[in-house]
Amino acid sequence: MDKKICITLFFMTLLINPFYCQWEVLNTFEQKAIQKLNFINDDLGYAMANDLSVNKQIIIKTKDGGNSWDTIPNVSYDEFSEFMDICFIKDSVGFSVFRDFSNSSAPMRMYKTFDDGLNWEDITPDSTNIGMGHSVVQFLDENVGFWGVAHMLYKTVDGGNSWDTTVLNNVSVMSLDFINADTGVIGTWDNSFFYSGSMYSTFDGGNSFDIYNLNLYSSVIHEVNFMDNNTVYATCTDNLFWGGRKPFICKSTDGGNSWDSIAIDTFDIEQASLSAVDFIDDLNGKILLKTPFSDTGFIFGTSNGAESWEFEDTIYLYQVTDLQIMANTAYVTGDENELYKTSSPLELFNLSNNKTSFKLYPNPTFSNSIVNINSNTSYTKVDIFDISGRHINTVEINDNTVLLPDLKKGLHFIKLSNKLSTESTYISVK
């Protein structure tokens, strides 16, 4: 049988499986192309959009998880301006970066609002050397923020009143993520002949960097994500001169000191590139792979820290602009004026803000091991589910202990029940 036919049948089999995560079109925007998502929680979110009806950049806001959106005032209604990034840190307080093509001396501008866009303050660093390259911004709170643009890194600790500047020679800033004012990772694109991407790790707020070169041809570090003090993910696509593209996840377990490159198993999807990625914790994340000149995108998920990936769904967007995972929902948007949304397994098991009357220990644990249940309630059985919500096994409880079956590494959901009650939690299998 032809390899492409086999792959197609494989995807069709997964798509009709009700236990796998299914994405749906949540909202179709009239004449609005969403370019950047910025959800603060499952309900409150902002987005950078292009209003195609008037060919102008706008910022829109949702308070109901993306079902409805309102346009908020902003500083970039000029047709000669282009939004580059937004960062809202809480309701009404945010930052926007846009490129002003009419200002040749200082084309990149940063603005700040305290009143949901009614008023904006120009907090652009006093520099004429900001450049015209890619731009990304992150604020940890109202005071501490980082702005990467072209080959420059700017840092403020007073809300943009003053900035410290670091020049990154011969590289362009493509992505960044800081876990605090001192520790962060910058994904770059080398401006040399081979265009090799590198990670720049800093532990002193950008004063100095440790550099890790991927040594991959024509690679770009699309995104970097700090999960905790130790675990960091970075994503790139190796655009080989010969042999096509190869998506990679780079992972650090020591806060960015060292990195491992993990090639993503794409189930032989030809010319697949990594369009979007996001992780909700150190184990669970999603990626979206795209094929060139096609409207087909493939969603894959991991529950074991990028060691393996499972196909989840197919979406249809020529260009994917952003993917973001929250506690109970995940979003994908692109060029077709559509917002895709799916429920997280956490929602299926009502685990967000979940307070159980029992504890499982040890947790994390190992496959085929004994787990103890510390509870005043007498439960009779345990149901085990994988990260997609698929039921794996039912296990009896003996003397408040459970013998786990053979389980894959990663996160699993545990449901304890008797005739009167049911409670759920999760367990991590090492």
Topology, please?
Blueprint: H1 3-15, E1 24-28, E2 32-39, E3 45-51, E4 56-62, E5 70-72, E6 81-90, E7 93-100, E8 108-113, E9 121-122, E10 135-139, E11 145-149, E12 152-156, E13 164-167, E14 171-178, E15 184-190, E16 197-202, E17 210-213, E18 219-226, E19 232-239, E20 245-252, E21 260-263, E22 273-279, E23 285-290, E24 296-302, E25 310-316, E26 320-325, E27 329-334, E28 338-343, H2 345-348, E29 358-361, E30 370-375, E31 381-385, E32 391-396, E33 401-403, E34 410-417, E35 422-429
- Count structural domains: 2
Continuous helix count: 2
Largest sheet: 4 strands, antiparallel
Q: Output the CATH homologous superfamily of the largest domain.
A: YVTN repeat-like/Quinoprotein amine dehydrogenase
Low-confidence stretches: 1-20
CATH topology of the largest domain: Methylamine Dehydrogenase, Chain H
Structural class: mainly beta
Beta content comes to over 45%
What does this structure look like?
- Strand 26 and strand 27 (329-334) form a beta hairpin.
- The chain has 2 helices and 35 strands.
- It has helices spanning 3-15, 345-348, and strands at residues 24-28, 32-39, 45-51, 56-62, 70-72, 81-90, 93-100, 108-113, 121-122, 135-139, 145-149, 152-156, 164-167, 171-178, 184-190, 197-202, 210-213, 219-226, 232-239, 245-252, 260-263, 273-279, 285-290, 296-302, 310-316, 320-325, 329-334, 338-343, 358-361, 370-375, 381-385, 391-396, 401-403, 410-417, 422-429.
- The protein is 4% helix and 50% strand.
- The two termini are 37 Å apart.
- A 4-stranded antiparallel sheet has the order 1-28-27-26. The chain has a 4-stranded antiparallel sheet with strand order 2-3-4-5, with no helix packed on it. The chain has a 4-stranded antiparallel sheet with strand order 6-7-8-9, with no helix packed on it.
- It folds into 2 domains: 3-344, YVTN repeat-like/Quinoprotein amine dehydrogenase (Methylamine Dehydrogenase, Chain H, 7 Propeller), CATH 2.130.10; 358-429, Macroglobulin (MG2) domain (Immunoglobulin-like).
